[in-house]
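so im writing up the methods section and need the N-acetyltransferase record in one place, dumping it here so i stop losing it
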Amino acid sequence: MKLVPQVLENAFVRLEPMEDAHREGLRAACNADQRIWTELYPFSWANEQFEPTWEKLRRDQAEGSNQPYAVLVGGEVVGITTFYAIEPANAAVAVGGTYYRPDQRGGATNPAAKRLMMGHAFGAGARRVVYHVDALNLRSRAAVTKLGAVQEGIMRQDRVTWTGRLRDTVVFSILADEWPSVRDRLEARLAVFA
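--- predicted struct ---
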């Protein structure tokens, strides 16, 4: 697997490798939902937490441990999604750290972005794409299931969130031989929005 950051685009979204130019747009998008950060995320992008989270993201990106993408709709930054836990030797990668501004949820943005991310990963030789979802995040669990991912299990008390809550993490995956049917279902879903 050779996963190289590059611009990914379809009729609904444009994913750009994260750059400093995306910083203020991402800050505004993240501040559009104050509640979600304390309820569902292991880290926060809101308010005073934005700067340290941004700096860590950019350090990890420079070290190559993740590949974050700014999610743009109509030229405006509406969120973020990331490749992380990149394991070239095992041909495995996780997609996550995803956040969308509230007005982008429930429409074409997530399936369109996931179509691009998974297409890029499997096209780069991935054998396995993984999703780690907070067990309390019912919306994300439903969205990942709707993508066609298979739930593998729940890692109990897997993480301590930034608020101190112990998080159980649900693990989902899609394998390379499952990708064609997952891709076809995603494209059928997106056709409704065209």
